[in-house]
Amino acid sequence: xxxxxxxxxxxxxxxxxxxxxxxxxxxxxxxxxxxxxxxxxxxxxxxxxxxxxxxxxxxxxxxxxxxxxxxxxxxxxxxxxxxxxxxxxxxxxxxxxxxxxxxxxxxxxxxxxxxxxxxxxxxxxxxxxxxxxxxxxxxxxxxxxxxxxxxxxxxxxxxxxxxxxxxxxxxxxxxxxxxxxxxxxxxxxxxxxxxxxxxxxxxxxxxxxxxxxxxxxxxxxxxxxxxxxxxxxxxxxxxxxxxxxxxxxxxxxxxxxxxxxxxxxxxxxxxxxxxxxxxxxxxxxxxxxxxxxxxxxxxxxxxxxxxxxxxxxxxxxxxxxxxxxxxxxxxxxxxxxxxxxxxxxxxxxxxxxxxxxxxxxxxxxxxxxxxxxxxxxxxxxxxxxxxxxxxxxxxxxxxxxxxxxxxxxxxxxxxxxxxxxxxxxxxxxxxxxxx
Length: 435
What we know:
6-stranded parallel β-sheet; alpha/beta; 18 helices; 14% strand; Rossmann fold
């Protein structure tokens, strides 16, 4: 079976590499020639734990190929998987479908024999219908069906999630397409639940899932605010909640707010779909607004901790939206830094993986350090914004020696509060009565 994947981003590249590892013949296409050249030379264009080894192995075995020629990619493919971006429209906040529609129009003339067009990108309800119309208009003799296979890959864990999915959702209205998809996903048949449903249901699942998780994150953040006022401990509260099987332990880590390439985009898109279809989605709309407010409040917390010394150096540890990825899209860390820049021009940042991506956003408005020590030297405050493991293992004794003022604002609860206090730090974190 030949698989063509259109798009080589955080979904397309891990997915294509994963299917190649399973033995499929995979061709990945992208319009970005620079990116394709790097991939063909064995250079990864994004960071994902565990990706490099299997990427190199399958590139060398010729099971994994990359091209800018969509005709070459699609020719003879049994399945063409659309994994292009559906970014948030800057004004309407809806999902921008221009890339996926352009890809459908471009691939249509090159279809040979029966082909399944599988939408991996996160798209609003009804997008599959429109893709069908676009392809049919461009190639009236094409023999194809469109299906929806929403992705559930966590950035930073995409390779693990590809090989160990908690479920696979496939939306199709065609028995013929189902047979092809059964063959494609046969390696997972005995490992996880494969849910078959109609296409519009599948298109809804990803949005509904992400909106729910975003609400769960915001809820635990509100509980953290309550704990700070009442004297409760958010870690203990979250543990007690998480042991309830109806709630579960995941997404109960208090922090500066949700971000990344999915939750902000998908919650906004879900809210706009509610308006389009005349359904009230008040919970989602409230979470969106309050999450935006939270990031501004976190920046204010840092500035307040400086006690008026806004000329003092602020060391920021972490720029990616979460640990395990170099992605800075909609990163709470970036947004907090941008808010802090309204009050301070002396900010030095460090991230072990996301520095280059962050620099494209922050430009020269901040200083960039090559490590924790350089970032924290002569700092009046250290702010932890991304949960990289190395930030939780900082030698506090040495840290205190190189700082001007022993102040830590830990917005990811990475450090041991009692240890930080015993070392003489002014230590602030999330969900505790700060001392």
